[in-house]
Amino acid sequence: MEMQSPIDPAGPVLGIETSCDETAAAVYAPDRGLLAHRLYSQVAVHAPYGGVVPELASRDHLRRLLPLVDAALADAGLRGPELAAVAYTAGPGLIGALLVGATLGTGLAFAWGRPALPVHHMEAHLLAPLLEDAPPAFPFLALLVSGGHCMLVDVQGLGRYRVLGETVDDAVGEAFDKTAKLLGLPYPGGPALAALAEQGDAGRFALPRPMLKRPGLDFSFSGLKTAVLVTLKELDAGGGASEQDRADLAASFQLAAVETLVAKTLRALEATGHRRVVVAGGVGANRLLRSRLRDALAARGASVYYPRIEFCTDNGAMIALAGSLWLRHGARPSSQVEARPRWPLAEVGSADR
Fold it and tell me: Could you tell me the CA-to-CA distances from 88 to 95, 145, 157 in Å, in that order?
C-alpha cells in the first residue's frame, strides 16, 4: 500500500453504481465538476427474459465494474490514491448487485488509503440536478419516479428528507413496464410505450386516475395497469386489438399516469409552500411528464429542475456527487461493506453518518 496522503474534503470522489442493471463509475470534484463518467447498460443481457434477472445482473457487474473504474480514472487523469474518497451505492437495490459495488468500492478505498462512503441510491437521484449548471437551491420538493420507486419528498437540505407520499403498490416505472408487456412491446417497456403513445389518441379510452379523489399524497398504479388489461380483453372479445387500438391504449395509459403524477405534485407543492421542484429517476425523462409539469408549475410561479437525460437513469455521476457532498459535510467513512436491499429514505441523515 502506498503512503497515505492527507484527505482533502474538496478533492475528487469516485462514484460506483451497481444497484440494478447499470454498471457505472464516475469522478466528481466540487471545484471542477464532473471529470469522467462511464456506464455499461445490461439491457441486452435481460431483454430475452423481459425483465432484470438478479443473478445475471450480479455476474455482469463482476465482469464490467473494475474495467469501468479504470477507464473513469484514466478519463479524469487520476490515480486511485489521488482521490479524496470512494463512494458506492449501498442501497436500496438488488442485494447481489449491491454487494459487487460495495465490495469493490470498500476494497479499493482500503487499498488506496481513502475513506469509503456508502450512498443511498434515491438520495443520489434527488441530488442529481445539482450536477447541472443552474442547480436548485435547498429547500425543494422532489418527485422521484423510477422503475422501483415513486415518492414525493420534502427536501430541506442534505440528509434532511421527509417523505410526503409514496406508492402503495407498483411504482410508476414498473407500471409503465408491465403495461408495455401487456401491449406486446419489447423490453425495456417504458420507453417503448412512450414511443407508441405518440401515435395514439390519449382521449379514446377512459382510464382511472388512481387515488386522486382521496386526500393525501400516496400513489397507486396497479389499478391503472389492471384497467388496461380489462380493456385489452374487451378488444380481444371484439375481434382483437389493432395496432391503432394499442397505440390509443398506450397514449391513454400514459396520460392517466402523467396526470396523476402532476396532480399529486401540485398538491404537495401547496402543502409545503415550496417554489422549486426536482424531478429525478428514469420516468423523469418522459416528454409528456416534462411538458405537463412545466406548464402546471409555471402557472403557479414555480420552477422545475431535472438532471440531464443521461443522468435520469442510474449512473455513477450522481453517486460521486452525493459522496462528495457528504464528505464535505463531515460524513464518517465506513470500513464495513454495506449493502441494504431496503433502506427507507427517511432514515438517511446526519445521524447515520
Answer: 14, 21, 21
Q: What is the pLDDT of residues 56-105, one digit of tens each?
A: 999 999 999 999 999 999 999 999 999 999 999 999 999 999 999 999 99
Q: Please, where are the H alpha helices in 24-149?
A: 43-46, 54-76, 95-112, 121-127
pLDDT digits (tens, 9 = 90+) for 256-289: 999 999 999 999 999 999 999 999 999 999 999 9
Fold of 137-306: Nucleotidyltransferase; domain 5 (3.30.420)
Q: In Å, how far are 22, 59, 324, 331 from 158, measured between CA atoms?
A: 25, 33, 12, 11
- Packing angle, helices 243-272 and 172-182, rounded to 10: 170
Q: In the 8-state DSSP scheme, what is residue 184? A: T
Which residues make Cβ contacts (< 8 Å) with residue 333, sequence separation at least 6?
A: 85, 109, 115, 116, 117
